[in-house]
Amino acid sequence: MSGTFVGMPAFPEAAREALADSQLRHNLAHATGTIRAKRAKVVAEVADWEELRLAGAAVKERALRDLDTQLVRLEETLTANGATVHWARDAAEANAIVAGIAKAHAAEEVVKVKSMVTQEIGLNEALAEEGISAWETDLAELIVQLGDDLPSHILVPAIHRNRAEIREIFRSKMAAAGRPAPDDLTDEPAVLAAAARDHLREKFLRAKVGVSGANFAVAETGTLVVVESEGNGRMCLTLPEVLVSVVGIEKVVSRWEDLDPMLRLLPRSSTGERMNPYTSVWSGVTPGDGPQEVHVVLLDNGRTRALADEVGRQALRCIRCSACLNVCPVYERTGGHAYGSVYPGPIGAILNPLLKGVGHDDQTDSLPYASSLCGACFEVCPVRIDIPSVLVDQRAQVVDAHRGGVPKPEAVAMKGAAYVLGRSRRLSVVERFTGLGMRFARRFGPAAWIGARDLPDAPGESFRAWWMRTDGGRTDGSRKEDGTDD
Amino acid sequence: MTDARTEILARVREALAGSAVEPVETRAPRDLAPATPEVVDLFAERVADYRAVVERCGAEELEDRIAAALPAGRVVVPPGLSVRVPDAIVDDGTLTAAELDRIAAVVTEARVGIAETGTIVLDHAPDQGRRAISLVPDTHICVVREDQVVPDVPDAIALLDPARPQTWISGPSATSDIELDRVEGVHGPRTLHVLLVAGER
Ligand code: SF4
User: Can you name the residues that pair with A247 across neighbouring β-strands?
Assistant: First the structure.
């Protein structure tokens, strides 16, 4: 796909564009509302849910605090199971390893299971440069790929597209990628799904190389786990002769029984199901069953940077369930594209700066401000990532990164103010993010500077206060809320 | 230049240096209970919740129930299936994916059933066969015995052998990717027919 997140405008500007798109807002509100309700129902079924969350957090935390030992163990067990282990410091190294494996088998194409990590490293684009086509096989990813588009939600990446648009994409784009859509294609979801089934089956049956990520990697047993719904994962993990799995180093859990809390937490938090339709578990090569050549690429790409951040490292526990997106008032209004990353929503607002570091680009630096600090994300997170605390810490780091160098310490507040002053119609959107940033900066950062320069003040009302008062913009709001949140 | 492995492990050690605080060990809450008749009932209910077909029967009826559940077309069975399926192709490991695609149905057994989540776990032993045969044909008829049903996920994890490949199946293949409308059947078998057999093997 040619769509890219690189060079996207910073969050406030991207958010403004998204807010103007009423179709997107409608689809998002519907999606997040529906999944929220499903999740709440199945979570309420579990009597000891809070205890389970503690266990989930502990499983991941234990592995992370001992990550070097766990990774070495994982390498040993995978190798003993017949897999080949590769290590990649960054996206370029990982992409080169995957391309090298495909080339060694003279493969002109690979089939892919939906995987955030391969999006993170831009694998499809890197393979395309080597003349290798990477076919996305998850229905939503197929829609996004054929539509030359970007995913907008971790779980339902094509949520910004309605059925009529999907029909149009299938009719106009499938033929160029393989088996065309049937002439009598309607916009019924079942009919569209059947068209995707036929289109992709041809690719599954002939594919030599499959590419996946992994939801979990068990160090003790050398086992990888992929959780999915459609069966495209099973196809990619089972039918090709060669399987390459790109696994972030934070996916490791220590022991086989650690999968218990994780497999109970993930589906209920993610799709709001008691269990997802399919979970595939494999430990290297099984003679006579599935791929006979199995590779695992262990990827850093900023994870060790995040691990070094004592407050932020908890973000590495994330199991990508997307529950935090679905409860986030900011995400519900702006959608995923505004975050300019494959990791959107509250988790994206902390994970991107942690992986990339702050002080380098405006897009990343703006993300810790893309929140009202309302705390809903922490409450639903199955591995208890305290996103609000990490956001506050990241804001401080953004301010610090701009202090004493170029740009100057006041740059963050200034940038926000200049932006607002520049075009007044931006104000309605931007004040929600700027007000907090200004007050934060005043309290912890260049307080004297702001006082001396007599800058126009950003609105005193915080986003959260505004949210409570107006019911998220649905009313003008007459109910006042006491106190502030910063 | 150091190699990637050495450098990543060094970065990890550096990142963790000085923060030796051991996290508290927390065990997942688990309440391992024997599979009572209520647990078996719950399993049947929860599997049916996913819009799979669930039938309960006695061992003596099993052959007839399988025959009745089979769609038109050919059927493949794993080499170790303990029940007779007339005219079935017995998988010898040589059928290609394209050949499996021309077969309408597969009959397998299972390793464990999880009541709480309505999940069937295959560990691809000879009574279940290699992974491809229960994936490519469009109808999967799965025989689960009542004594294979356990209450919840931790019971299953305790029973399963991580050295074996596993497929955890909760209902037929499904997607909600188009306007969140649930559609059963994308790439995996579109029909999952579970025969829950009373008594022990
Ligand atoms: S941060 Fe927590 S809630 Fe958000 S995607 Fe990750 S695991 Fe899920």
Answer: A298
